[in-house]
Structure formats: structure tokens, C-alpha cells
TrEMBL record:
The keyword Lipoprotein does not apply. This is methylmalonyl-CoA epimerase. CDD domains: MMCE. It comes from Stappia albiluteola. SUPFAM superfamilies: Glyoxalase/Bleomycin resistance protein/Dihydroxybiphenyl dioxygenase (SSF54593). NCBIfam families: metmalonyl_epim (TIGR03081). Residues 4-134 form the VOC domain.
Amino acid sequence: MIGRLNHVAIAVPDLEKASATYRDVLGATISAPQAEPDHGVTVVFIELPNTKIELLEPLGENSPIQAFLDRSPSGGIHHVCYEVDDILAARDRLKEQGARVLGSGEPKIGAHGKPVLFLHPKDFNGTLVELEQA
């Protein structure tokens, strides 16, 4: 059901500083910052030959990323994102097997302009999983 790894997301307290580390120390190509108000984050993507790294910074006081950073002030891996061919079919199959879809269960549009859903980390070995329609 899952396809390729789309990205690994890292929550950071300072997007500009984290971007500079990837750009200046590791020599990575980084996208411009993109505000995602529906998700409460500002993101940049680091392009790699085989996938992407997404850096996430809280956007607004109610950002879900802020609670993560309160527990881990220096940041850390927040989630992994896998591609699926049909997000609604994937959601329905996962729910039939007992997996919990976060939020309303309806896909939202993610940073790549495609439908996304998040799956409860307790159902996936402590890892928050994002599904993105390919």
C-alpha cells in the first residue's frame, strides 16, 4: 500500500538557523520558507537525490509543533511521510485494520499541494506517520 518515502520531517525551534546549518554546513539545496496556516507550521524542504527533509517551525500560538518543541526544545524528528496512490482507499483500509487517523479523518492539503493524512503514533511503533497522495 505505501509507496516511496516522501520526506522525513524535523521540528526545529528556529527555521532560519536550521536552514543555514543544512545549507552552509552540509551544502544542501533548500526551498524558500512556506507558511502552512492550516497545519500551524512554516516549512522548508531540503532536496536530496532520493527524498526530502522537511524542517518545521511553529506558526502561531496553537501550532501542534509547539507541544513537541516544549518536550524537545532543541527539536528532533517529528514524522515520516509515505506516498500512497489513493489516500481515501488507504485511509479506509487502515481504519478497517484498526489504525487511528488523526483529526477528522478527512484529508487536508499539505505543503506539496496534495492531500495528506496523519496516523496515530501509538499504532506505528511510536512514529507519527503522514500519508500523501502521490
